[in-house]
Amino acid sequence: MSNKPSIPKGTRDFSPIEMARRNYIFDTIKKVYKKYGFQQIETPAMENLNTLIGTGGDESDTLIFKILNSGDYLKKADEKALNDKDSNGLTRSIAEKALHYDLTVPFARYVVQNQNDITFPFRRFQIQPVWRADRPQKGRYREFYQCDADIIGSNSLLNEVDLIKIIDDVFSELFQGKLNYKVSFNNRKILAGIAESFGVEERLEEMTVIIDKLDKIWIDGVVKELEKKSFSTEISLFIRELITNSNPFDLLKHKFINSEIGLKGIEELEYIRTTINQIGLINKNVIFDPTLARGLGYYTGTIIEVKVENFPSICGGGRYDDLTGKFGLKDVSGVGISFGADRIYDVLLDNNLYPKFEGDSTQVLFTNQTGNDEEVFLPMLFKLRDAGINAEIYPDEVKWKRQMNYASKKNIEYIVSSNFDGELFVKKSDNQDKIQFKTAEELITLIQK
To answer: By C-alpha distance, which of 357, 156, 100, 382 is closest to 271?
Structure first.
């Protein structure tokens, strides 16, 4: 008995039209990245597990898909961990590799390994799949594509401004002014300043993870969870006030009077806000959100997130001051963003924003009815292809209806046929009128009109 074919939860197959739509997204993002001077690289789908562990925070570590060692992996398993059912200890002895859960950590590893061949500041972009052992739901998959752009080797906040403008360029083109999007920005130093002001610096990551759930559990949920985790009532009240305050900058400045890191965060945010205002973005779709946290633990400065109504984040990023330090290259600051291609795909589809993909499939079908069709049409077929026209010949001499059904299902626009007198005709699929022609050059002219 054969097994019913299936794919793992959180993964998907993609049809030709879905691939055309995905490539439209990739091509749009690539075009903008190149316009801003970014160069493309690729890194392996799998990394050494010790490269990934401990870089994105405890929550990210739980999302890593581990790869079992080759051969008899249990032979070298930690017997004590196995007997104690210690999954973390056992994993270290049976899995040395893992699928990358984002592209930033592999990029940091790449920079360190290739530092002598890189010109800094290095502007790179990378479009590849990533894997996360997350619970699949609408807009959230276990295998999905990220489209990253990072600038590493520079502390300048002009880099953040560039990335925010890139976001605006990409979504202005993809959404064509028909869909509103919100670019929120904050600074992890603000969150560190809040933690310092309330004496809970050592619990910064824990506090950040809770605040990052605001869009899922709302204000009351965040306050309740902070209290549940034994954060003081004063912190809960301050977070509530910060979320609802119409002028959070003034509230934060007052709170940070004795917090150097908090005031530094305010200074950086004000520079970015002033600069993007000068290029006309602050009153468009870009806003300061003092509660924006983003869960990845390697962010140290600016953090950015983009959302549209009824969807999770479709783009995000931020600054990381020493991610390369894990691999031995200290004090190299970087900042980057990542477009979630799969979520953007769903947004465009739900809002009917895809263009018509006329050049992504066969434009011309040469039919195959008479014994001479193959001999006559093959030379023409290759001339059309050389002219940049997508064309094919039906491979079998079968009934006309079957060939027309094939053309209809593939949305082929032009049908080329012959009669038994050797006369050649072309017609558009939505028109019964046939136009006679004699040479491939005539046919090319008719199609390219």
So the answer is: 156
Residue 443: give the domain boundaries: 361-448
Instruction: Mark whether 379 and 236 lie in a shared domain.
Output: no
Percentage, residues of the chain above pLDDT 70:
96
Say how far residue 188 (Cα) sits from the centre of its chain.
22
Cα torsion 287, 303, 186, 263 to 10°: value is: -150
| pLDDT score recorded for residue 232 | 85
Domain CATH code at residue 420:
3.40.50.800
pLDDT attached to residue 402:
96
The answer to whether residue 374 scores a pLDDT higher than 70 is: yes
- Tell me the helix, strand and coil percentages in the chain, rounded to 5: 45, 20, 35
| Residue 8 resides in a domain | no
The verdict on 383 and 432 lying in the same domain is yes
Look up tokens 């489209």; give the residue: 147
Do residues 133 and 152 make contact, with C-beta atoms less than 8 angstroms apart?
no
Model confidence, pTM: 0.85
Q: Residue 35 — φ and ψ, nearest 5°? A: -60, -30
Residue 2 within any structural domain of the chain: no
Mark whether 139 and 192 lie in a shared domain.
yes
Query: Do the beta carbons of residue 69 and residue 76 sit within 8 Å?
Result: yes
Question: Do 303 and 394 share a structural domain?
Answer: no
Burial 168-192 (b: 16+ CB within 10 A, else e): bbbbeebbeeeeebebbbbbbbbbb
Strand runs (DSSP E) across 39-191, as ranges?
39-40, 46-48, 66-67, 97-99, 122-131, 143-152, 182-187
